[in-house]
């Protein structure tokens, strides 16, 4: 499927932290994903919200898609550059500090609202099901009648023996 994309590069956050937010919107409806990001407590959620909003605007204005039928097809997080800095430590040593950057690619697709699952049965299935439901009850009634007859015969024979 062809989708509409919006890309945000050089985000100053680690890819692992960005992926936590991206996971929350994958496969969701675009409007639901925007609401989720709006009320998220993660700092990066605001940047992801802007990117997703840009993708929705691209779909609506550039491709003429209906924004109510847009779904997040893919929210891909990639590694960007990593700045290396050094900090002085004890005994004349130094340690490196890594400042990672990330990139985010959000892809939207337009698809129909999934139909609600409904069961349609033909008349034959309904009739056969009704027969199947009544058949065991008839058998149980016959069995109980047979058991009653056998019990009465056993009682009569037991009384005759006494």
> What is the CATH class of the largest domain?
Alpha Beta
Largest β sheet strand count, sense and barrel closure = 3 strands, antiparallel
Amino- and carboxy-terminal Cα gap: 88 Å
Estimate nothing, just give the exact number of structural domains.
2
Task: Give the CATH topology of the largest domain.
Answer: Ribosomal Protein L22, Chain A
Instruction: Give the low-confidence spans.
Output: none
From the 3D coordinates, which CATH architecture of the largest domain would you assign?
Alpha-Beta Complex
Judged by helices, strands and strand pairing, the structural class is: alpha+beta
Output the radius of gyration: 34 Å
Instruction: Count the DSSP helices.
Output: 4
Care to count the β-strands? 3
The mean pLDDT is 84
CATH homologous superfamily annotation of the largest domain: Ribosomal protein L22/L17
Sketch the topology as an H/E string, one letter per element.
Answer: EHHHEEH
Helix content: 40-55%
Strand order within the widest sheet? Answer: 1-3-2
- Overall morphology: elongated
Q: How much of the residues is beta strand, in percent? A: 25-35%
Put the structure in a nutshell.
The protein is of the alpha+beta class and 162 residues long. Helix content is 46%, strand content 27%.
Describe the structure.
- With 162 residues, the protein is an alpha+beta fold.
- It has two domains: 4-110, Ribosomal protein L22/L17 (Ribosomal Protein L22, Chain A, Alpha-Beta Complex); 123-162.
- The protein is 46% helix and 27% strand.
- It has helices at residues 15-23, 30-38, 45-61, 123-161, and strands at residues 4-11, 70-88, 94-110.
- Strands 1-3-2 form a three-stranded antiparallel sheet.
- Helix 2 (30-38) runs antiparallel to helix 3 (45-61).
- The chain is elongated, with a radius of gyration of 34 Å.
């Amino acid at each position: 499927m062809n989708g509409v994309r919006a890309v945000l590069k050089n985000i100053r956050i680690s890819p692992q932290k960005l992926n936590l937010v991206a996971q929350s919107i994958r496969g969701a409806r675009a409007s639901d994903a925007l609401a989720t990001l709006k009320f998220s407590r993660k700092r990066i959620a605001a940047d992801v919200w802007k990117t997703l909003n840009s993708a929705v605007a691209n779909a609506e204005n550039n491709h003429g898609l209906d924004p109510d039928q847009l779904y997040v097809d893919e929210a891909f997080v990639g590694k960007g550059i990593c700045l290396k800095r050094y900090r002085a430590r004890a005994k004349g040593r130094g340690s490196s500090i890594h400042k990672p950057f990330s990139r985010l690619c959000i892809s939207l697709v337009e698809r129909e609202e999934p139909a609600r699952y409904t069961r349609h049965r033909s008349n034959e299935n309904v009739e056969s099901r009704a027969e199947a439901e009544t058949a065991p009850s008839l058998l149980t009634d016959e069995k109980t009648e047979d058991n009653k007859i056998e019990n009465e015969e056993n009682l009569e024979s037991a009384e005759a023996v006494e």
